Amino acid sequence: MGLILNLETSSTNCSVCVAKDGEILAIRELNSANYSHAEKLHIFIEEVMQEASLKMEDLEAVAVSKGPGSYTGLRIGVSAAKGLCYALGIPLISISTLKSMASQVKINDDEVLIPVLDARRMEVYSSVFDKNGKEIRETKAEMIDEHSFQDYINIKHVHFLGSGAEKIKELFSLETITYHCEVVPSAKEMASISSNKYNVDDFEDVAYFEPYYLKDFVMQTKKAKA
After folding, report:
1. 55 in helix, strand or coil?
2. What is d(CA 148, CA 11) in angstroms, rounded to the nearest whole number?
3. Which residues neighbour 165 within 8 Å (Cβ) at sequence distance 6 or greater?
4. pTM, two decimal places
5. Distance (Å, whole) CA 194 – CA 187
6. Do 188 and 142 form a contact (C-beta atoms < 8 A)?
7. Is the C-alpha dihedral spanning 212, 18, 14, 171 positive or negative?
């Protein structure tokens, strides 16, 4: 039996679920532009465990979205996951944020999925997946313009999904593109992925695991008044 707590904090959506063998027993999430992770994450953990009538000691692993995404959000989620794993003596599972996003949309054989997360200005985090969820292009942080993604737009029907899709929508208006701007990373899609990883002992080193930031954190400072 794989009883796994799944934590997703890489975007505006603070999402938690507990699942048994990939089947969700309870889920809580709140998608807020104000990033509610610090206030809601541990509350949601307590609520899903109570709803599923479970104790923390019942858990067999904790899965966390590893990024890319919000620097602060990832730090909060990974810190919580590692703390639970240390305290309970259970394995840590990491899941690509973009991979779990891609699993939200079903496509045909001749189509591709490109999950894109907003990374400020005209930059996005993106990767490319086929129908079976296989990554066919590595994850990148990239500036987008009218030349972006041409290797796929010109030969296949492309599905852009996620917060970064709004930026791409401003550049391309083609019949060969479908936009799913409403898609956000969620613990819901993590359940089956984490179960599969648990079954093959695909675990992280709790002591040394770090989120996949993809680029350095830049502190935003206010300009001093003249």
Report:
1. coil
2. 23
3. 116, 179, 180, 181, 183
4. 0.91
5. 10
6. no
7. positive
Q: Nearest 10 degrees: CA dihedral of 97, 40, 74, 59?
A: -70
From first to last of its 226 residues, the chain has per-residue pLDDT tens of 699 999 999 999 999 999 999 999 999 999 998 888 999 999 999 999 999 999 999 999 999 999 999 999 999 999 999 999 999 999 999 999 999 999 999 999 999 999 999 998 889 999 999 999 999 999 999 999 999 999 999 889 999 999 999 999 999 988 999 999 999 999 999 999 999 999 999 999 999 999 998 765 443 444 444 3
What lies within 8 Å, CB to CB, of 151 at 6+ separation is: none
Token readout for 110 is 């001749």
What tokens appear for 61 in the block?
A: 């692993």
User: C-alpha angle 56/59/63, rounded to 5°?
Assistant: 110
212 C-beta neighbours (distance < 10 Å), count: 18
CA angle 221, 64, 137 (to 5 degrees): 80
Alpha-carbon span 19 to 1, nearest angstrom: 10
- Give the residues across from 8 on adjacent strands: 15
- Measured CA to CA, the distance from residue 198 to residue 3 in angstroms comes to 9
Angle of the 71-88 helix axis to the 37-51 helix axis, nearest 10: 40
DSSP designation for 223: P
Helix (H) or strand (E) holding 4: strand 3-8
The rounded distance, in Å, linking the Cα atoms of 187 and 19 is 10
